[in-house]
Amino acid sequence: MASIFAAERQKQILDFLNKKKRATVKELSEILNVSEATLRSDLRTLEKDALVKRTHGGAVLQEAARSEYSFSVREKKNHSEKVAICRKAAELIESGQCILLDGSSTALELARILKKTPIRLTVITNGIFAAMELKDNPELTVILIGGVIRVGHNSLEGTLGTSILNQINVDTMFTSANGFTIEEGLTDFNVYEVELKKEMVAASSRVVALLDHSKIGKNSIAAFAATSAISTIITDSQTPQSMIDRIRREQVETILA
Predict the structure, then answer these.
(1) For a 10 Å CB count at each end of the chain, is N or C smaller?
(2) Are 200 and 206 in contact (CB under 8 A)?
(3) Do residues 223 and 197 touch, judged by C-beta distance below 8 A?
C-alpha cells in the first residue's frame, strides 16, 4: 500500500485528470512539485489499479474511474444488489442503537430504508444526501459530521468534525468502499474521506461492510479498515463462493443478500 503521502499525491493526480481529462508527466510533476520519476511511479500504481491509462508522455483517466467520481453514476451501478444488501443490513439494527453511515451511495440506500422504518435511532453520517433522507423520520436523531464539501461530492470530508465521535458510543458503522481485498481490507480512492472513515471505524464497536460483487477483490489507493477490523460483510450472490469462503476463514461473518 502506498504511503499516505503517495496516496495524497495520487488522489491529486486523479482530481486533476478528472477536471482536465489528460495531463503530461511534466506538468503533473511541476504541479505536485515531485520528480518526473516519482510521478511515473505514481502513474504506474494508478494504472495497475485501472484508474488511469498511461499515454506517450502522460496519462488520461480511465472511463471506469471517471464514473467513480460521479455520485449519480455510482448510485445507479448495481442498484438492485445494493437495495438487497441494505435490506439485510437493516435487519441488524435494533431500536435504541447509535449507528454510523458513511457517505457512500450504498449507505444512502440504507438511509432510504430507515427513513420508512418505525425505529428509534441516533444516526451519525458524513453523507449529505443520507442526512436529508433521514431527517424526515421523526424517530431518528440525525447528526451530520462537519467537514469540507468539494465540487461534485455529496459527502463531507476531512476530520474537522470528528470530535463528536469521542462523545457518543457508536454501536455499528455501516460502510461501503471502492474495493475490498483480504490483504488490504476496505480501500477507497478519496484520501480525504479515507482519513475520516478511519476515525469512524475506530469509534465503532462493530463495522459492517456493504459490498456488492463489483467491490470484492478490487483494490484502490488507500485503506481505511483492515480485514481484522470488519465484523460483517454483506454482499450479493454474484460474489464467487471461493471468495466468500476465504473471507469466512478470516473470521468475518459473511451474509448473502
Answers:
(1) N
(2) no
(3) no
Q: According to the model, what pLDDT value does residue 58 have?
A: 87
| β-sheet bridge partners, residue 23 | 59
Specify the range with the lowest mean pLDDT, choosing from 66-75, 82-91, 189-198.
66-75
CA distances from 150 to 2, 87, 93, 174, 231 (A): 24, 30, 31, 23, 31
Q: How far from 76 is each of 106, 129, 174, CA to CA, in Å?
A: 10, 15, 19
Instruction: Report how far residue 13's alpha carbon sits from residue 30's, in angstroms, rounded to the nearest whole number.
Output: 12
Question: For residues 124 and 98, is the Cβ–Cβ distance under 8 A?
Answer: yes
Which three three-digit cell numbers place residue 26? 511534466
Which cell numbers hold the place of 89?
443490513
- In terms of phi and psi (left: phi > 0; alpha: psi -120 to 50; beta: otherwise), the region of 141 is beta
222 within 8 A of 193, measured Cβ to Cβ: no
Task: Average the pLDDT over 103-112 and give the result.
Answer: 94
Q: Please report the DSSP string for 3-15 in residue order.
A: -HHHHHHHHHHHH
Q: Is the pLDDT of residue 1 over 50?
A: no
Question: Residue 16 corresponds to which amino acid?
Answer: F
| Tens of pLDDT, residues 6-51 | 777 887 888 788 777 788 998 898 888 899 899 888 888 888 776 7
Give the span between the Cα atoms of 156 and 225, in whole angstroms: 19
Q: How many residues does this entry show for the chain?
A: 257
Per-residue pLDDT reduced to its tens digit, 208-219: 999 999 999 988
